[in-house]
Design a protein that fits this description.
mainly alpha, 239 residues
C-alpha cells in the first residue's frame, strides 16, 4: 500500500480522498498545478520523511461525509462546471478587487520601507487581470463544451476543435497563476506579517492566504477531475 501511494500522483491522491488536500496544504505540496508529480518525488523535493506523511495520508477521512468535502470525481461535468462557477469564480470576482485594494494600500503606506510590498501589489494586479480573462474563457468556451460532452451521443461540433485545445490553454494559465501565488508567498515571507504589522497589512495577509487556498482547490478540480474527464469522454465519442 505504501509503495502504491508513493507512486500515485499527488493530484490523484486528493481525487481519491479530498481531505488529503489539507495535509498537502500544510506541507506546501502542490496538488493542483503540480498534481501530475508522483508523491514520492514530491516528498523527496521537500525533504520530507515518507513514513510520517504516508501515515497521515492513510488517516485522512475516506468518506466525503466525514471530511465535509463532496466527491467531485463522481459528479457530472455539468454539476462540476456549475459548482466551479457558483463557488470559485464567484469568490474570485468578489475577493480579487479586495486583494487589489489592500495590496495598493499597503504598498502606498509601507512601500518605501518595504519595497517588496510594491511588487506584491504589482503581482496581485497582474493575477487579477489574468484570472478575470481566464474565467471568461472558461465560462464562454470550455465549460459550455464540457456540458455538451456530458450529454452527447456523438461528438459535438466546436469552433475550437478538440476539447484538448482550450484545456491546454487553461492549464498553461493555471501554471501562471500558480507562479504568481508562489511569488506572493515569497515576497511576504511565507504570508507572515511582521510583528509590528498594522491591521491593513494583516488583513492583506489573511486575504492572500485565503486566496491561495481557494485557488488550489479550484485548480485541482479542473486539472485533476474536470479536464481529464472531458478529454476521456471526447475520445470515447470520437471512436
Amino acid at each position: 500500500m505504501s509503495q502504491a501511494l508513493l507512486e500515485s500522483t499527488v493530484g490523484q491522491l486528493v481525487v481519491e480522498r479530498p481531505a488529503r488536500a489539507r495535509l498537502f496544504e500544510k506541507l506546501g505540496i502542490d496538488y493542483c498545478c503540480g498534481g501530475k508529480i508522483p508523491l514520492g518525488d514530491a516528498l523527496a523535493k521537500k525533504g520530507l520523511a515518507a513514513e510520517t506523511v504516508l501515515a497521515e495520508l492513510d488517516a485522512a477521512p475516506a468518506s466525503t461525509a466525514e471530511s465535509g468535502e463532496r466527491d467531485w470525481s463522481t459528479a457530472s461535468m455539468t454539476d462540476l462546471c456549475d459548482h466551479i462557477e457558483k463557488t470559485h469564480h464567484a469568490y474570485l470576482r468578489e475577493e480579487l478587487p479586495r486583494v487589489e485594494f489592500l495590496t495598493q494600500k499597503v504598498a502606498n503606506r509601507h512601500g518605501e520601507r518595504l519595497p517588496a510590498m510594491i511588487e506584491v501589489h504589482e503581482v496581485a494586479v497582474a493575477l487579477k487581470d489574468e484570472l478575470d480573462s481566464h474565467m471568461l474563457k472558461e465560462e464562454r468556451v470550455l465549460f459550455p463544451l464540457c456540458r455538451k460532452l456530458d450529454t452527447a451521443e456523438s461528438l459535438p461540433e466546436s469552433h475550437c476543435g478538440s476539447v484538448d485545445n482550450p484545456i491546454a490553454v487553461m492549464i498553461a494559465e493555471h501554471e501562471d497563476a500558480g507562479d504568481a501565488l508562489a511569488r506572493l508567498r515569497e515576497l511576504t515571507d511565507g504570508f507572515t506579517p511582521p510583528a509590528d504589522a498594522c491591521n491593513t497589512y494583516r488583513a492583506m495577509i489573511e486575504s492572500l492566504v485565503a486566496l491561495e487556498a481557494d485557488l488550489h482547490r479550484h485548480i485541482h478540480k479542473e486539472n485533476n477531475i474536470l479536464f481529464p474527464k472531458a478529454a476521456r469522454i471526447e475520445k470515447l465519442l470520437s471512436r
